[in-house]
Amino acid sequence: MSIRSFHPPVRTLMGPGPSDVHPRILEAMARPTIGHLDPRFIDMMDEMKALLHYAFKARNELTLPVSAPGSAGMETCFVNLVEPGDTVIVCQNGVFGGRMKENVERCGGKTVLVEDEWGMPVDPNKVADALKTHPEAKIVAFVQAETSTGACSDVETITRLAHEHGCLVIVDAVTSLGGSPLEVDEWNVDAIYSGSQKCLSCTPGLSPVSFNQHSIDVIKNRKTKVQSWFLDLSLVMNYWGGGTKRAYHHTAPINALYGLHEALVLLQEEGLENAWQRHRDMHIALKAGLEAMGLRFIVPEAARLPQLNAVAIPDGADDVQVRSALLNRYGLEIGAGLGALAGRIWRIGLMGYSASPKNILLCLSALEAVLAESKASIAAGAAINAAQKVLADRGY
């Protein structure tokens, strides 16, 4: 057997993640590896915390990147804050609310499920009703940016409701950090997690998290041990704490952290609000092209995520065949539907470095060509002009 070095094909990533990785991030990850307790690495860790404070718009001391993907960020929040017997209100309007429920149950907690139709945001009125019906609830957990549907929920309102009833909140911001407005301090979010591979344009494998003082107090006053040793924040914070004295916990993914550091530097250079606006502008241009083609969004306009565009598959189009043709002929990846929406929608991502005019025009031209060839029910010939007009009007 003779296995040679792996050389991946060049792709344009416009699915639900990962997104295209910025060349500066790839270059950063190729820099020399040093020890995870090296003084220079510790300096970089301190910078990383400051950069994450900027990205989250939070000053929480307990802010760090978990050495694993966003799913581990989710688990970090639940295993540290949920104890056996706790009641947790979980909002489910897509796949990832369901994963929150699973986490609660594995922690020995009791779930009160608030359900909304997939493609709709979480209804704050339903949350308010659940809080009134379950005064024993300790936590409200919900997804800001539901990656499976492209719907954005109201963090500020749901957090306020939870606090009025003495509950903490856990917020999933995997797809929103760096791409949608997020004000952790101003909205008083207790615990939040994200991922490196979406709007931050880094490689997968790291999960930024942030916990305010209220949630830290809950962690410190637990009656039971955190069920995960690796994700126990009372241990991890001794490694990611301030100053030069760091207690060894695990060997951090050094080069991956170089990449996240560079991603956050890029975000700082662009400006957080400018990044939010760029994602919004690119969404409006893509929307103009898709609608000119005759494609329909499944999420009401007011609740749409700019970075995750969920569109109904048109009549006459075969889901798998279209996505395969885009990948094999154009090197373009878009996402399939998940769960209840499998086979019914495509998920087109505009995240981070992928949110660019070049990618929008590639996506529209390739999608139109493949759909026209398959005799799908679309209007051909108008998509590119519609998108270009929006881009020109917005100065791109």
Automatic annotation (TrEMBL):
N6-(pyridoxal phosphate)lysine found at: K198
Residues involved in substrate binding: R347
Cofactor requirements of the protein: pyridoxal 5'-phosphate
Matching Gene3D superfamilies: Aspartate Aminotransferase, domain 1 (3.90.1150.10), Type I PLP-dependent aspartate aminotransferase-like (Major domain) (3.40.640.10)
Pfam families: Aminotran_5 (PF00266)
Gene Ontology biological process terms, A to Z: glycine biosynthetic process, by transamination of glyoxylate
GO molecular function: alanine-glyoxylate transaminase activity; L-serine-pyruvate transaminase activity
Keyword flag Methyltransferase: no
Domain Aminotransferase class V: 33-337
Keywords from the named record: Aminotransferase, Pyridoxal phosphate, Pyruvate, Transferase
UniProt keyword Transferase, yes or no: yes
Family from the record: Belongs to the class-V pyridoxal-phosphate-dependent aminotransferase family.
Protein name as annotated: Serine--pyruvate transaminase
